[in-house]
Amino acid sequence: MNPGPAGAPRRRRRFPFFSLLAICELVAYIAVARWIGLGWAILATLVTSMLGMSLMRYFGAKAIRAYQADQAAGRPPGDHIVDGTISFLGAVGLLLPGFISDVIGLLCVLPPTRALLRPVARRLLESRLGSGGAQNLFGPRRVRTEAGVPDEAPSGEVIEGEVIDAREKDEGP
User: Fold this and answer.
1) Is the per-residue pLDDT at 95 higher than 60?
2) 169 in a structural domain
3) What is the pTM of this model?
């Protein structure tokens, strides 16, 4: 039997999720239209879509400027990329028709909730990139250890490095 393309199992897992999301969006849209009226629901959809389009332009340009500034300063651009990606995806959520995607989009666009999403998005990106890609994007990792405890990352990956005792460094040769 031919198992098919490498991405086929992943696509099969996504299909039910997006089908369920589409059904939920439709049910929510009908409920909101009954609550506020069909005309107001359509108007709200148009307004949030226009807001999403303008925010896509704004956050896209802001992310590009931040990336260029990081590159010019020699800083790793990872944090700005994560923030820009969350904001951009939030703007896309607002652009899509539907009230559930609008709520998710607003959560991604608003600064307080975006700050809550930032660590999760960073860990997800680091896990997708691996240690080499994450180091290029976020810079070297900083690990604190106690005396006698081996330097080991949470994933079990061994971190090579040099331990310098601050007392020896201050005393000099």
Assistant:
1) yes
2) no
3) 0.65
Q: Is 120 buried (19+), middle (13-18) or exposed (0-12) by CB count in 10 A?
A: exposed
> Is residue 61 in a domain?
yes
Whether 161 and 150 have beta carbons less than 8 Å apart is answered as no
Task: Please count the structural domains in the chain.
Answer: 1
Distance, CA of 137 to CA of 81 (rounded, Å): 9
For 136, the enclosing helix (H) or strand (E) is helix 111-138
- By three-state DSSP, how is residue 60 classified? helix
pLDDT confidence bin for 102, thresholds 50/70/90: very high
The encoded tokens of residue 48 equal 């949030």
- The strand pairing partners of 158, in sequence order, are 152
Cα separation, 103 vs 36, in Å, equals 17
pLDDT digits (tens, 9 = 90+) for 103-142: 999 999 998 998 899 888 888 877 777 666 555 666 666 5
Residue 152 lies in a domain: no
Give me the domain span that covers residue 118. Answer: 45-140
